[in-house]
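> Could you send the Reverse transcriptase domain-containing protein prediction when you get a chance?

Sure thing. Input:
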Amino acid sequence: MYAAQTEEAAAAKDVVAGIILLDGIRVRALFDTAASHSFIDRLFAELHGIPLIFLLHTGHVVVPNHILDIREYSPNCPIRVGEWIMPIDLLALRKLGDFDVVLGMDWLTKYYATIDCKNRTVTFREPGQTEVVFSGCRSSLFAMTISSSRARQLK
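Output:
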């Protein structure tokens, strides 16, 4: 479903990771074509006052060696990339590794995203809109930044 660790994602050649704005908050994001849906780390949502709503029915997500229950989601969260603001519905998971959000195919297809893994970019080409290009992390410095940020949160 998603690359759980930043170090793995930074080294992987088939995902793009970087910092985006979610409701005005800087978040560590993974653009993941292997994820059918988009997710937010539950603790991150709580810490930043992002409202979570209970689902009418518990959902399930299958990841390697696990089945995770989904009980909450955050609807219509505004994500800003360049000048674009793109609402997203995020399912809440207890742990997303070193990421705050995982942006899956439900959202990527809605906004006509094309991922260029070699150049670590995501291009949004929604009809009638000006094209926007997001440049993701290109080095392992992102992984070190994430790890030090997590360490500060744990203090």
